[in-house]
Amino acid sequence: LYAIRDFITTNYADNISLEFLCKNFGINEYKLKRGFKELFNTSVIEFLINQRLDQAQLMLLEKDKSIGEIAYLIGYSSPQYFSKAFKKKYGIS
Fold first, then answer.
1. Are the beta carbons of 70 and 82 closer than 8 angstroms?
2. Which of 51, 44, 58, 43 is nearest to 76 (CA)?
3. At residue 29, does pLDDT exceed 90?
4. Contact 38, 46 (CB under 8 A)
5. What pLDDT, in 10s, does the model give residues 6-25?
6. Residues 21 and 40 sit within 8 Å (Cβ to Cβ)
7. How far from 17 is each of 13, 36, 72, 80, CA to CA, in Å?
8. Helix (H, G, I), strand (E, B) or coil at 72
9. Contact, 9 vs 50, CB < 8 A?
10. pTM of the model
11. DSSP class of 13
12. Disulfide check for 12: which of 24, 44, 51, 78 has CB 3.0–4.6 Å away?
């Protein structure tokens, strides 16, 4: 589970799914979900989203990229979806 957490932290912008993680780390989905939640007090998907949004926040502070560019760089398929997720987490658009 630590290896999975580290993988997500490093590869947050990639298209990461539970299926991909299970296949590549040799763990079944139930054990992944349950173990990750117990160990890190968050779900795998929430952890991934938080990694992406934390990186986006840093990029936004640099002010050298547009919101659209940042959305794609951190793994979102659309700037609108990114904006919605960012506002949900941070309370600002």
1. yes
2. 51
3. yes
4. no
5. 999 999 999 999 999 999 99
6. no
7. 12, 14, 17, 21
8. helix
9. no
10. 0.85
11. T
12. 51
